[in-house]
Each structure stands twice: as C-alpha cells, then as structure tokens.
Design brief:
1 helix; alpha+beta; 2 domains; 4 strands; four-stranded antiparallel β-sheet
C-alpha cells in the first residue's frame, strides 16, 4: 500500500497542486488595478489643499466632492505638494 501511494497517488497530488498554483498565479496578475488615492480640494493657491475623499487615478469622469456632478473638483498632489494632478471618479468593483 505504501509503495502504491508513493508511486501513483503522490505524483498525481503534486501535479494537481502545481496546476492549481499556476492558475491562481495567472488570476492574480490579471486583477492588477491602481489603488484609489485621496483627492484634495484646491484652495487659493496650488500649495494649499484640504483632503476630501477617495478618487481613482484613471477613469473618464472627474472626481468631485461627494461624487456630485458639477461640484468642486478634487486633485492629487504632485511631487512638489501642489494640487494640480487630475483625479477621476472611483470605479466600483
């Protein structure tokens, strides 16, 4: 019984495990999405911003306060701390 397990069943288990792991690895790489970022309200000058809500770095509709069309737009800070990078409405998953 022990030799039957080692010679027949164990290789089948290893192949099954390897196949499952390969399929899961492929699924993980396909689900890559950009994380949402904090949107800032642009005040009097680009350096003065207040954090508001989460926005997406990609999309088609501009991110606004409360996701209301026509409301104040939200921005991302660039490397200099200025609120000048456009953000978009988060896409529901």
């Amino acid at each position: 019984m022990k030799t039957k397990f080692l010679s027949v069943i164990l290789p089948l288990l290893v192949v099954g495990f390897a196949t499952t792991a390969a399929m899961n690895t492929n699924n993980i790489s396909q689900k890559k999405t950009l994380a949402n970022e904090i949107g800032f309200i642009h005040l009097t000058n680009p350096e003065r911003c207040n954090a508001s809500s989460e926005c997406s770095p990609t999309g088609s509709e501009m991110c606004t306060v409360g996701d209301v069309s026509g409301a104040t737009r939200l921005w991302k800070k660039n490397q200099n701390g200025q609120c000048v990078v456009e953000l978009y409405r988060p896409i529901p998953e």
